[in-house]
Design goal:
UDP-N-acetylmuramoyl-L-alanine:D-glutamate ligase; 3 domains; 16 strands
Length: 291
């Protein structure tokens, strides 16, 4: 995308994905505004307060933003109806940018030594959050954009689903459901699993093959994913496999064996390669058992 945007308006800025993009836009020095039907709802106050703290101006979703601002483009998601007032009252010729294209534009503008993109049919948000928080506690000062709120990054001025970071590492939740993971180039690709939630398995396997081809250096993937995409596509990459199936793994690929795993509403436990010291416990929400 060659056009440089100096101002963007996010229609539905309070959504978990859109609010992350709006924060990322503001962090890159773009004049950023947003609107949302639920802007006045108390349950959304923390996200909107964080947006405002980052100089994202929030307007009612009635087209009134154009009384004060003429944005270069409108960022929207598929949840926004065609008769939305922010569409209907926009100045003639104002381009629209789907959220996946906005993510592509903003990610391409990130200056980082290692862009890590986390993909998979399920678990993307959890692993993106866990990876970003682990890197943060290791002192790596990572950036992150994801579809969840990372505990370590929640504050009065940050919603928790975006952090600019210090430039060396940036972690992105990569979505296969709309194939937007193919819109940008990562240094490291992580593929957690392959399922049929959005596409038949053979179609998704080809999406993941292209994702791997687009990745510059490192591939971390499940053994079931490797079986689906094949080894040829990984040629020339640094590959690390973690076993989640009985599918064979080539002897020259490092493979982490998962010895024990169990999970429930109280959290998850796993141990790797028969080393007790490698065991990991992840807490879960204690209230989920009472739903």
């Amino acid at each position: 995308m060659s056009k440089k945007f100096t101002s963007l308006h996010f229609v539905g800025a309070g959504g978990i994905g859109m609010s992350a993009l709006a924060q990322m836009s503001a962090a890159q020095g773009i004049v950023t505004t947003g609107s949302d039907r639920a802007a006045a709802s108390p349950e959304n106050a923390r996200i909107f307060n964080a947006l405002k703290a980052q100089e994202v101006r929030i307007f009612p979703q009635d087209g009134s933003v154009y009384d004060e601002v003429t944005p270069d483009a409108l960022v929207y998601s598929t949840a926004i109806e065609e008769d939305n007032p922010d569409f209907a009252k926009a100045p003639a010729g104002t381009p629209r940018l789907h959220r996946s294209d906005a993510l592509k534009y903003l990610v391409e503008s990130v200056q980082t030594e290692n862009m890590i993109a986390v993909a998979g049919t399920c678990g993307k948000t959890s692993v993106t959050s866990q990876l970003a928080e682990a890197l943060y506690h290791l002192g790596a000062e990572p950036g992150v954009i994801c579809g969840g709120l990372v505990n370590a990054f929640v504050s009065d001025s940050l919603a928790g689903n975006f952090r600019a970071g210090a430039g060396k590492i940036f972690v992105v939740e990569a979505d296969e459901s709309d194939k937007s993971l193919l819109n940008y180039t990562a240094d490291t690709a992580v593929i957690l699993n392959i399922g049929t939630d959005h596409y038949p398995k053979d179609v998704l396997a080809e999406v993941f093959r292209q994702f791997i081809r687009n990745t510059r250096r490192n591939i971390v993937l499940a053994s079931s994913v490797l079986a689906a995409v094949g080894t040829e596509v990984c040629t020339g990459k640094n590959v690390l496999v973690f076993r989640d199936s009985t599918d064979p793994v080539p002897a020259d690929y490092p493979c982490i064996e998962l010895d024990s795993y169990h999970a429930g509403c109280g959290g998850a436990f796993c141990a790797f390669d028969s080393h007790p010291e490698s065991a990991m416990r992840a807490p879960g929400p204690p209230a989920c058992a009472r739903r």
